[in-house]
Amino acid sequence: VFFFPLSPHSPISPLSHFISFAHRGELCQAKRIVVKLGSAVVTRGDECGLALGRLASIVEQVAMLQNQGREMMIVTSGAVAFGKQRLRHEILLSQSVRQALHSGQNQLKDVSVPVLEARACAAAGQSGLMALYEAMFSQYSTCTAQVLVTNLDFHDDQKRRNLNSTLQELLGMNIVPIVNTNDAVVPPPEPNSDLQGVISIKDNDSLAARLAVEMKADLLIALSDVEGLYDSPPGTDDAKLIDIFYPGDQQSITYGTKSRVGIGGMEAKVKAALWALQGGTSVVIANGTNPKVTGHVITDIVEGKKVGTFFSEVKPAGPTVEHQAEMARNSGRTLATLRPDQRSEIICRLADRLVEKEEEILAANKIDMELAANEGKLSAALLNRLSLSPAKLGSLSTGLRQIAVASQDSLGRVLRRTRLAHNLELEQITVPIGVLLVIFEARPDCLPQVSSLAIASGNALLAKGGKEAANTNRILHELTQEALDIHGVQEAVQLVSTREEVEDLCRLDEMIDLIIPRGSSQLVRNIQRAARGIPVLGHSEGICHVYVDSEANADKVIKIVRDSKCDYPAACNAMETLLVHRDILSTPEFDQIIDMLRTEQVKIHAGPRFASFLTFRPSEVKSLRTEYGDLECCIEVVDSMQEAVDHIHRYGSSHTDVIVTENEDTAEQFLQQLDSACVFWNTSSRFSDGYRFGLGAEVGISTARIHARGPVGLDGLLTTKWVLRGNGHTAADFSEQGTMKYLHENLPVTPPRCLCMWN
Question: Domain Aldehyde dehydrogenase spans what residues (predicted)?
Answer without folding.
Answer: 320-586
